[in-house]
UniProtKB/TrEMBL annotation, chains A, B:
GO molecular function, one term: aspartate kinase activity
The family this protein is said to belong to: Belongs to the aspartokinase family.
Domain named ACT: residues: 262-345
Provenance organism: Bariatricus massiliensis
UniProt protein name: Aspartokinase
Length: 402, 402
C-alpha cells in the first residue's frame, strides 16, 4: 500500500514535533507500506523569511520571494530525513527540482502542470521513506515557484494522484472536519464522511481545515482524502465522492470574516456596465463573491458585492481609476462584515432549508444584508460582530450537534 | 568586461552589509560591465543549520546535511537580488540546480566537474546582475553537494574560468594578502602581487585569506585573482602567474596552529613499513605534512609526522587499529605545536634563506622540532606557545616590513 502523508508547519515546528511526525511515518513504514511525506516549512519560518524580504525590499520580485521561501520546506524535509535516519528508518528528502514538480510560471500562485514520478518511485523501490517539499514547484525557466495558500495540501494531493496512492492523509492540529468551528460552537460535531462538493463549499465558505484547491484536485483525480490530527490516532474525516447516507439536511456551517463589501453607487442603467465592472476586477485577479443589484435614483442602479479583505485595497484602487469609464458616481465599502454559510447535499431535495436558516438568525436578532446560494450552499452576509452568535444559532437551528 | 565578485558570509551578515555589497555590485554594473556575484551563507547561518542537524541526529547522512546547508546560500542570493532590485538594478539569483554546477558525488567535499554557462550568459545578456550560490554543486543523482572549506572561493574561480571573466575579485574582511597575519605582526605589509605558487604555499601554511583549492583552480585555468576588502576601495592583492620583480627574498610568513604531531615508536626497520603507515592514513583521507624519521633502539625506527588537528582523532584511531600489522610499539601525540612557514620564489636562487630563518628563531630562544621544505617554502614545527613570537621574529629577520 502507498500512503501520502502531509504535515503542516506547526506539526514540525520543533525537535519534539519532528520526532512525533517521524514516529508516525516510521509506524506506517514498518507495516510494510510505501510512505511519501509532504512537509511545510517549520513553524513560523515562512513568515520570518517574508519579514527578512520585507526589510530588504518591500517590493521584491515574486520570483526572488519564491527563491527565498522555498528554502523553508527544504530545511524541514532534510531535518525530517535526519530524524528518520536517527530511528534507523531509511529516508531521503527531495525538493521540487529533484522530483521535477513542473508548475505554471506564475510566481507566488503557481499550479502544477506535470509531476515526474521516476525519482520517487526509485527511492520507494529502495525501501526509503520519501520526504518531499510541499508548497513549491519549478517552472519552465527552471525557476522556483510557490503554490500560494494551501500549497502543501495541493502538493500532497497531486503526489497521491500521480503516484496512484491508496491513501492521502492531511494531518492538522484538529481531529477532522467539524459541523462548525469547534472553538466557536462548543457542541460542534466531527464529520465522519463528506463529499468533495460539500468540502469544497465549506472550504470556500471559511472552513480553514482544507484549502479548496486541494479539494478540487482530489475530486478531479478521485483521491480519497483523510483529514486527521497529528497529535492523536483518532479516525478523522474522510473526503470522497459518495458518502454513506447520514440523515442530515446540511453537513456543516462556516463563517468567513475575511470579507468586505463594496458598493458602487449611481451606475448608468444600461447593458454591459455591470459586465465591465466585474471584468475589470477579474482582470486584476480579484474574486468577487456575493453580488446584489438594486435600482437607484434617476435611472441609475447601485451594485454591491463582496471581495476578500486581502483584495479590498486593490479592488477600490482599480475601481477608482476607472470610475468615469464605468459611470460610477460613488464608491463605498464596509470591512465589518462576515459571511455565514450552510453546506449540504441534502438541501438539493429539501425545500425550506433557507427558511430554517433565516429563522434561526431572526430569532437571534441578526440582520441579513445579502444572500447568495449554490445548489448545496446558502450564504448570508451579516455584520461581523454577529458572526459567532450566528454560527451557534444556525448550528443549533439545524440540530447539527446530534 | 565580465567581473566575478565573491563575498563571504560576514560581508552579507545583515541588512546594512547586504546593501553595502549591493552598492559595490551596482557600481560595477553601472560602469557597463557584466557582473556575476558569488555569495556564501549569511553570517553564522551555516553553523546554526549544523547545530539544528546535530540536535536532530549527530550522525545525519552527509547527503541530508548538504540538502540542509545549501538553503543557507539560497537565502543570501535571493535577498541580495532583492537588495539590488530595491536600487533599481536588474538582478536574478541562481542556485546550483539553476546554473547546473555539476560536481562529483561526494557529499560534504565535492569537486566541480562541469559548469553550464547558458543560463548565466542568458541573464547577463538581459543586462542582469547574476547572483550565484557559492559552496554548492549538484551531482549526477541530482542531489545537492557542498564543496567543503573555501567552497565559495572555489565557486567564484570556477565561474570566472568557464565564463572567461576578465577579473575574479575575492572580497574579505582584510585588505589583501599580508607578509604575515597583521593581527600578530603589527608591521606586516600588504603584498601587491603574488604568484599562484607562492599563494598556494602560503594558503597551505596557514594563511587563511584564500583556500588552496581555489588558488589551485585559478592557477590551472589562469584566472587572475584579486583579494580585497569589502569595506573599502583599497587596491588589494593580485594573484597571478608572473609578478613584477620585487627585490624580496621571501614573500610572506605564515603560522598554522591547527596542527598536531604524531609519533609512532619502535617500528620494524624494514622496507615498506613507512609506506604502509602513510598509505593507511591516506586511504582514510588524512593528509600528512612534515615527516621526520629517526633511528630507534634495537634495529627499530621512530617516525614522527604532523596532521591537521581536525584529523588527529581519526588518525590515532586508524593507527591504533592497525598497530600490530604496522609493527608499531607505541603511539604518542602532541597538539601543542605550530608550523611556521616562509614562502617566496626568491629563495630558489638564494642560498642562506634557511639559515636566516633559523637564526631569527634561535635569537628569540625558539626551539625547532621538525623541518620541511619545498622549492619555495621552508616550514618548521615549534611549540604552539612560541608561534606568535616566531612570526614576529622571522618577519623582522627578513625585513618584510619594508
Amino acid at each position: 500500500m502507498l500512503v501520502v502523508k502531509k504535515f503542516g508547519g506547526s506539526s514540525v515546528a520543533n525537535k519534539e514535533r519532528i520526532f512525533n511526525v517521524a514516529g508516525r511515518c516510521a509506524e506506517e513504514y514498518q507495516k510494510g507500506n510505501d510512505v511519501v511525506v509532504v512537509l511545510s516549512a517549520m513553524g513560523d519560518t515562512t513568515d520570518e523569511l517574508l519579514d527578512k524580504a520585507e526589510d530588504i525590499n518591500p517590493n521584491a520580485s515574486k520570483r526572488e520571494l519564491d527563491m527565498l521561501l522555498t528554502t523553508g520546506e527544504q530545511i524541514s524535509v532534510s531535518l525530517m530525513a535526519m530524524a528518520l535516519q536517527a530511528m534507523n528508518i531509511p529516508a531521503i528528502s527531495l525538493n521540487a527540482f529533484q522530483v521535477q514538480m513542473h508548475s505554471t510560471s506564475r510566481n507566488g500562485n503557481a499550479r502544477f502542470k506535470r509531476i515526474d514520478t521516476d525519482r520517487i518511485q526509485h527511492e520507494l523501490g529502495n525501501r526509503k521513506v520519501v520526504i518531499v517539499t510541499g508548497f513549491q514547484g519549478v517552472n519552465k525557466y527552471d525557476d522556483y515557484t510557490t503554490l500560494g495558500r494551501g500549497g502543501s495540501d495541493t502538493t500532497a494531493v497531486a503526489l497521491a494522484a500521480v503516484l496512484h496512492a491508496d491513501q492521502c492523509e492531511i494531518y492538522t492540529d484538529v481531529e477532522g472536519v467539524y459541523t462548525a468551528d469547534p472553538r466557536v460552537v462548543k457542541n460542534a460535531r466531527k464529520i465522519e464522511e463528506i463529499t468533495y462538493d460539500e468540502m469544497l463549499e465549506l472550504a470556500t465558505s471559511g472552513a480553514k481545515v482544507l484549502h479548496n484547491r486541494s479539494v478540487e484536485m482530489a475530486k478531479k483525480y478521485g483521491v480519497e482524502l483523510v483529514v486527521r490530527s497529528s497529535l492523536n490516532t483518532e479516525e478523522g474525516t474522510v473526503v470522497k465522492e459518495v458518502v454513506k447516507v447520514e440523515k442530515m439536511l446540511i453537513t456543516g456551517v462556516a463563517a468567513d470574516k475575511n470579507t468586505a463589501r463594496i458598493s458602487v453607487i449611481g451606475v448608468e442603467d444600461k447593458p454591459g456596465i455591470a459586465f465591465k465592472i466585474f471584468n475589470t476586477l477579474s482582470r486584476n485577479n480579484i474574486n468577487v463573491d456575493i453580488i446584489l443589484q438594486s435600482v437607484g435614483r434617476e435611472g441609475t442602479k447601485d451594485i454591491s458585492f463582496t471581495v476578500s479583505q486581502d483584495d479590498l485595497k486593490e479592488a477600490l484602487a482599480v475601481l477608482e481609476e476607472r470610475k468615469q469609464a464605468l459611470t460610477i458616481k460613488d464608491i463605498t465599502h464596509d470591512e465589518k462584515v462576515a459571511k455565514i454559510s450552510i453546506v449540504g447535499a441534502g438541501m438539493l431535495s429539501n425545500p425550506g432549508v433557507a427558511a430554517t436558516m433565516f429563522e434561526s438568525l431572526c430569532n437571534s436578532n441578526i440582520n441579513i444584508n445579502m444572500i447568495s446560494t449554490s445548489e448545496i450552499r446558502i450564504t448570508v452576509l451579516i455584520d461581523e460582530k454577529d458572526a459567532d452568535n450566528a454560527l451557534v444559532a444556525v448550528h443549533d437551528g439545524f440540530g447539527l450537534e446530534d
